[in-house]
Write a structure and sequence with these properties.
The model has no long low-confidence stretch (mean pLDDT 87). The protein has a three-stranded antiparallel sheet. The chain contains three helices and three strands. By secondary structure, the protein is mainly alpha-helical. A hairpin with a 6-residue loop joins strand 2 (66-67) and strand 3. Helices cover 43% and strands 7% of the residues. Helix 1 runs antiparallel to helix 2 (26-38).
Length: 86
């Protein structure tokens, strides 16, 4: 049920993006779509207690894009342009 709150938010973000594609960068929409597909949440949305549990000083980018609510799985998502590669 807690995950559904995030799914609703992400679906609303996608609808907003469809109306105005300047609201989000393409890579962020890609992350949102992948979060919906994998039942994870964006790193930006981690609950505050996560910081205390793992003694993290901040929520800045650690290279993790998505995390599941059980905190057992993390995901890094890459969306590059057609001429880019890893």
């Amino acid at each position: 049920m807690y995950l559904q709150k995030y799914k609703n938010k992400y679906l609303q973000n996608i609808k907003s993006y469809q109306k105005d594609n300047n609201l989000f960068r393409d890579y962020k929409i890609y992350e949102i779509l992948y979060a919906l597909r994998t039942d994870t949440i964006l790193w930006d949305d981690i609950p505050p207690e996560f910081l205390n549990k793992y003694n993290l000083p901040h929520t800045k980018d650690y290279g993790i894009d998505l995390i599941d609510l059980k905190q057992t799985k993390t995901v890094q998502v890459k969306h590059y342009g057609s001429k880019s590669s890893i």
